[in-house]
Every structure is written in structure tokens, then in C-alpha cells.
Amino acid sequence: MKINSKLPHVGTTIFSVMSALANENKAINLSQGFPDFAASEYLLERLNYHATAGRNQYAPMNGVPELREAIADLIGDCYGRKVDAETEITLASGATEALFVAVQAIIRPGDDVILLDPAYDSYEPAITLAGGSCTRLSLVPPRYQPDWQQIEDSIKPNTRLIMVNSPHNPTATAFTDSDWRELERIADKHNLLVISDEVYEHIVFERERNSAHRYPGLAERTFVVSSFGKTFHVTGWKLGYCVAPPALSEEFRKVHQFVTFTSFTPAQYAVADMLTEKRDEVHALGAFYQRKRDCFIHAMRGSRFELLPSAGTYFVLADYSALSDLNDVDYCHQLTREHGVAAIPLSVFYETPPESRIVRFCFAKREQTLIDAAARLKTL
């Protein structure tokens, strides 16, 4: 059978490839972004409580009311924005689903979308499946900051949407206040919609959390996507949500109901309890991961890797130019097979990779895991 693929250039994601390679070689996995430590005992107890209490059937399509109300309260606490839990918040089966649904809701054949490279690998396939095209513009190294003049100059008559991600995976940078204001200005001036991927919103270092939620003119035209998997160390629960104005949420829900319809019911109740009773853990998340970042940076002192600044997420970039002339994909394979540490190559996040030798390490691990990985890397 001959199949005319809708995604002819898409294969298995680099995250699956590197994690499988790490398992095969018994390497320390600092590639795929997931914790190797347990979630909150309270959260797990509440999951068990709600599952055994019989809350195992379909939840409402837009999410259980208790969780939507808790999310609205959290947004108010963090950003001072009042959102309507009934009309503006929709639960999804992970942030990836929410991003996909938002794209399908608004992109039609012939629409163009601005992406900022390096970009997370789920963005462009969603746009392609909706019949859209991508204009990919590179963040400016070594600080990986957006060039807003270049972005504005790249807007075409068919530009419909700009997708942004802050704190940014994979570069571990974060938008400044001026970045958010420039995005707000450009989106308003050119009547663009925005998808703001904020799955690492609570994991920022040496700075205040920021979001599209803080900017009223931006919030009124934006899908803000967040993730409980990242916030509560339960990536396997695949529970995220999208906040958008009522008109955008209505379109989002039209698609969402035919993709997953609803999401893991007992987990929704458990997370609602967590946000109600243990909200301080959300506010402490930045400091929690900053300690892990600093542990890894300290452990890597004396290595020949040059670690780049990490302002947020649970990643840090490392330049290996002093160690090898291999391209980053081959180097990550060599690092995993021969030295027992798995990383992610930066080039896979680009349409046209720049000339650089940079890999991404994940520090969402136990401190001993980070120390052991650094000990191996320092032998190079």
C-alpha cells in the first residue's frame, strides 16, 4: 500500500531516540525532560483517594469545576489577571494536546505562522496538519533573544499567528518585560493571534515569573498553555490546560472535544486539591529547581564544557567545542554510548541549524544523579 504521508519529513522524535539509546547503554539520562524523583506524597494520596472514591468516569469536557476554579485562583495569585473559570479555562491531555488543538482551531490552509527557532518539535507538524505554513526566525545567539524588528518585518498578509515559548525550551532563556510588551504591540498592530507555551512558567531563576497573562492587550488575543506535568513532577499524567478569551476558548473546545474530549478524571481532582491545599509548592518551584541547576553547575566545574546561562526551565545548554568537532547529533550518540551520559542536540530544534556545537542537559534529577553525570562528563 502506498501512503501519501501528511508528515513526510517527520520520524521518531529525538527525545524517544535518545531515551532509548540511554536505556540501551545504561547511561545517565539527562536528555528527555522528566524528573527521576517522586511526586508529592500528598498529591499521590489524593489521586488514590479520588480513584477509590469512584471518580473514574468522564469528567466534563472542559475540566472538573473544582480544578478550573483553582486554576483561576492561581492565575490571580501569580499574575493579577482575573479569568472566568467557566468560559476561559479548558483542561487538556497534556500541553502538547493543548498546543495542537489551539493550532487546529484557528489555522486554515494558506495561513502562515511565525515560529522562533530553536522551536519545540510539536509546533510545525501541528501547523502543517492544519494546512498552514511556517516562517521560522532564529533567536539571536549567544543570548537567544528575539529580534522584534526582524519579526515585525517578516509579517506577511497571510500571517495569522505567532507562537512563543517562555521560559524557553531548549535554550533556557526567558522573555523580559520589554519582550512581552513588544509582542503585545506587534500582535495588536498586525491583528495577530498568539499561542504562548508557558509550561515552565513557575520554573524561573533570579527573576519574577512573567506571562502573557500580565498584559491585557496580549491576553485578549492569546491561547496560554500550561502544564501540571512540569509543575508537579508528573509528566506521565499528561494533564495541561489552555486559558483563552471566551471566543477563542469556544473554538478551542470545538476541536478538543473530538481529540480527547476529556482528561484523566481522578488526577484532575487530585491537582485541584494540590492547588487548594499546597499552593505554596507552586510558588516554591523556582527555588526548588534553582538548587538543582546550581548543583549541576557546581558539579561541572573543571569540565571542558562551557555551560550557558539558564534563566528558567529545567535545562542548561552546554558548548562542547573544546571537546569535539563532531556535529551535535553524532556527539550526543557518542556521549551516550562511550561516556554514559545522554543529552539532546540543539540542532534538531531548528529548521536551518546554525554553525554551533551545543547540547542540552536536563537537571530535573536527584542531586546524586547530577553529581554522578558530572563526574563522567569531567573525564572528557
UniProtKB/TrEMBL annotation:
CDD domains: AAT_like. One of its GO terms (molecular function) is kynurenine-oxoglutarate transaminase activity. It is an enzyme of class 2 (transferase). Its cofactor is pyridoxal 5'-phosphate. Residues 26-375 form the Aminotransferase class I/classII large domain. Transmembrane segments: none annotated. GO terms for cellular component: cytoplasm. Belongs to the class-I pyridoxal-phosphate-dependent aminotransferase family. This is Methionine aminotransferase. Its EC number is 2.6.1.-. The keyword Ribosomal protein does not apply. Keywords: Aminotransferase, Pyridoxal phosphate, Transferase. It comes from Litorivivens lipolytica. PANTHER family: FI04487P (PTHR43807:SF20). Pfam families: Aminotran_1_2 (PF00155).
